[in-house]
Amino acid sequence: MLEELRKIPKAELHIHIEGSLEPELLFSIAERNKIELPYKSIDEVRQLYQFHNLQSFLDIYYQATNVLKLKKDFYELTYSYLERVHRDGVCHVEIFFDPQSHTSRGVLFSDVIEGIHEALEQGKKDFNISYFIIMSFLRHLSEEDALEILEQSLPYKHLIKAVGLDSSEQGNPPSKFKTVFSKCKDLGFLTVAHAGEEGPPEYIWEALNLLNVSRIDHGVRSIEDKKLIEQIIENKIPLTVCPLSNIKLKVYEDLKQHHIKELFDLGVRVTINSDDPAYFGGYILENYIQCKNSLGFTFKDLCKISKYSIEASFLSQVEKDRLLTEIDEVESSYLI
Ligand SMILES: Nc1ncnc2[nH]cnc12
Ligand SMILES: [Zn+2]
């Protein structure tokens, strides 16, 4: 079954490229950039990856991000991720990057986006993985800061498909970013937002009604609001769920308690993603496998979830139809 799961063409729609920085790469880039790390070994770093909530993770994530300085670093980070998920059967990625966490340290916006973009182009040639880039605003910063980075991004607008909203959720509701999201829409960007990871269902309502998002990132706390679930089902709003992330960040104590299967059974278009795979114990395929093992998803269910990931992507309908047919072929060859 593992081999069959690997073969299902999947889209990954919720991956922070900075969250794919494996300790090995962290050390090698730090050495190249002559940055002294506060840890001595890879093992010591991995031991730090015990989190009790989102903020305890973000503190370590932003610290590690500090080693990324040059275009070459962003290229290497992104290409390593693609090399890795190619083995998981990923055919399309929509990756987040957090420009503010780099430009605030003096890194050039151009180096960040060009490094990421060139790696994605190379990955398309080498692994046949298509892509879109999503620029994420850091919600713990002000809306003025978001407007400022939006301004800096405009020369690279052709490389950015959508904007998102991430970082510390509690106390930073989507409504804080209404103006910048409205400006982004006017400029032609699509929009997504993290909501209902740790924050209440009200934040999901705000993301839908005030930011007009195409997808909700995480969204697991929608289960607490019956009306919201009805709305999500009726309007076919996809949720980009990250099961192993939710366990590592203690949204749930155990995968068996996760609501993804309940949401799926209700008819919500859930997708399975990795979020920050270098920190959370698994890339996308591992998330699929553990959902199957802990929550009783069948192979057919997981094919349906992959189809949701294609349908929820920003690909053209022609591209979607081609990939949906490929999933049908994998599914029927397994079920024969
Ligand atoms: N899981 C997550 N939630 C919010 N912001 C993030 N940035 C990176 N990972 C994140
Ligand atoms: Zn995320």
From TrEMBL:
Keywords, A to Z, come to:
Hydrolase, Metal-binding, Nucleotide metabolism, Zinc
Sites binding Zn(2+) sit at 14, 16, 194, 275
Residues that, per the record, bind substrate: 276
Q: Name one GO molecular function term.
A: zinc ion binding
Q: Which CDD domains match?
A: ADA
- CC cofactor: Zn(2+)
Q: Site: Important for catalytic activity. Where?
A: 218
Question: How does the cofactor bind to this protein, according to its record?
Answer: Binds 1 zinc ion per subunit.
Q: Report the catalytic activity.
A: adenine + H2O + H(+) = hypoxanthine + NH4(+)
Instruction: List the HAMAP family hit by this protein, alphabetically.
Output: Adenine_deaminase
Q: What does the function comment of this entry state? A: Catalyzes the hydrolytic deamination of adenine to hypoxanthine. Plays an important role in the purine salvage pathway and in nitrogen catabolism.
* NCBIfam families according to UniProt: aden_deam (TIGR01430), PRK09358.1-6 (NF006850)
**What protein name does the entry list?**
Adenine deaminase
